[in-house]
Amino acid sequence: MAGGSYPVAASRYRPAAKVLVLPVLLGAWEGAVRVGVLDPFYTSSPVPILATIVRWIATGYVLEHVLATLAVTLAGLAGGVVIGAVAGFALGFLRWLERVALPFLTAANAMPRIILYPLMVLWLGFGPLSRIVLVASLVVFPALLTTHSAIRQVDVEIVRNARVLGARRLGLIRHVYLPAVALWLFSTIRVTIGFALAGAIVGEYVGAVRGMGMVIAFAQSMFRAREVLAGTAVLLAVIWLIDLGLRAAEHAAARWRLSEVM
Amino acid sequence: MSTSIAPVESRAAVRPPAVQAVGLAKWFDGAEGTVAAIENLTFTVHPGEFLCLVGPSGCGKSTLLNIIAGLLPASGGQLQIYGESGGRVRPDCIGYVFQRDALLPWKTALQNVMLPLLLRGVPMAQSRAEALNWVQKVGLAGFEHHYPSQLSGGMRKRISLAMTMVYRPSIILMDEPFAALDVQTRHLMENELLALWAEAGSTILFVTHDLEEAVALADRIIVLTAAPARIRADYQVPLDRPRDVAEIRTSGAFVDIYRRIWRDLREEVAASRGRR
Amino acid sequence: MSRAGEPPATAVRAVQAALVAAALVGWEVGARRGWLSAEFVSRPTAVGAVIWDWVRSGYLWPHLVATFEAAVVGLGLGLAGGAALGFLVMFVPAVGEVVEPAMSTLNAVPRIVFYPLLMLWLGLGMASKVGLVATIVAFLGYYTAVGAVREVDRLLLAQVRILGASPAAMLRHLYLPATLAWMITGLRTSVGLAFIGAILGEYMGSMRGIGNIIMGAQNLFQTPQVMAGLALTMVLAAAVDTLLARLETHWSAWRQVEQA
Question: What ipTM goes with this model?
């Protein structure tokens, strides 16, 4: 069936254009500030921002706070995933628990848990623990439901076959269910890491002593545009690197995944 | 192999042919190399003619229609619509009724029929009146404000017809429009089409793989070969009009013509099956 | 498909109800008896009393309105702006080359990261809150428009071209309605995100709204108020979501035939 054709003529200039976009934008920004079109009080300009970032790196300021944010994120992520996976296994194997608990858990998953942060602060103070628990709460329910779903979806034939081959419950878990779950969990992590980071950062905005979120929020409260932009740029760079890393890991995982478990 | 009739030729002398194709060709670059869909197609369609294109499935009939409509460029040869080439879609000349109905699902039946008029700058009130008129003509009075999802397949087909004919295109392309309908609805639609065509006087290019349908409807039938499509035969169908599609199938003349054309078509169908 | 060992539905319901009741009663009694520290967890009755007081005294409404206003305005701006950018990217290839990779990169970033920038530029009031919501929702709007344009039925496209539609007419009669249809399907998600965005914005700035109530209470260590605010938020979010779910089923009425 014929339809319209979208303009897909390959442009000679395309690769060059893409690379040039960022420098051109930065140049235009710098120029606009010099000329007076943009007010540097609000926007700062590329050169001082870069200088700030360099200074931060040199003094180890960036490292300290990036690590603080990442530590909270990863701790919460790990905690949430582990608890979620264990609970998911329990739910997958104990039918009565599943029937009773599943509606509650699904409802809990639908709740916007990130807004619970003030309650965490009330209970756990402003330290990293409240943020770790917040991140964990964001991650635990998706992890739980994903694990449970993965277990339920394991092909009955595979299980039967494994049983025939002599596998008992522990063997089944090890050779059939764990690989199935691991696959799903990996993709869940890719999805939830965004929430985890958001949770950590929100916590740092509201009240923290360490973390990139704190750096940015503090600068904002003092109306220091340069540092707000510098901090945001650093945070963006870190997130981008994490995303790249995850994609690489996913490619690697896809390559040695020979067959579909489910 | 065509048995020309004098009236057709004298008409051609007065006006340019509706469609003139010379050596038309189309090939596609696919995964397995270049595939020719149409090869060296030369034919003329006269204004007001009801021409059916028959051929085995997949022989390139739809591709030909799309080229004539301007949706696809030809790879070779020449195509002239009313004496003009250029290959672009000419909105006033051409109407197209697709096999699957192409009604906009977010517009009511009436709004769909109004669309081509609005696109031509016809004022709202007038568009509405014209469209309403056509909705009634296709027998769907009372259903104007229904959405396509609320209409049956046959009804949607009728709205498609109305939508195409409302702006009176000189050439109407139809790609197996009734294939998806049940037999009775199909007969109904075929009769309606003949009635609308008699009134409008457009040129119709009707693609079908159903030879019975073709003989019942057409003035002229072109048999296309299996892919790549070439012209195998060109028959006139001198059956009287007005025709009733269901009744005519039992007439002797119908059966004669059908037999003759089927001999050609059968070989092409076998050839296309053999190739797959 | 019931398997052996599956508990009957009524028994399950009974157990669930009992658990909820036990939790509430346990909470209340535990707080009163001192087994649970009332300072940290409060009591259901205290929380309920706070909500009742807020409703009765009229304290709640201006804040509720402020949050809803920010959510709705931000939603509209974000969806419209995102969709407009999406159309631009799909119809002007040069723009698409530059913008699409940028959006793809930015999409991996939690939008909350941009909030301090927005506060810097738009101040601490409603504008930055709306800006945050708009930023969050804009990506949804963008990808909806891009998806709708990409996935538009080729048949409809061909038909509308034959009927003589100019690019502007195609936008108006084909792409825009298609995009709207997609957006309505995704409305539950967008509205949910808008709501959360408004509240998070209120956490971090000093402005009116439910988030403000919660934050203020947290600063004063008023546990019942914090819990009341959170409870209200959850209930509202659930109510809006249910309403939208109902609307969605009504809306699916004319969508059926497209798949046929």
Answer: 0.86
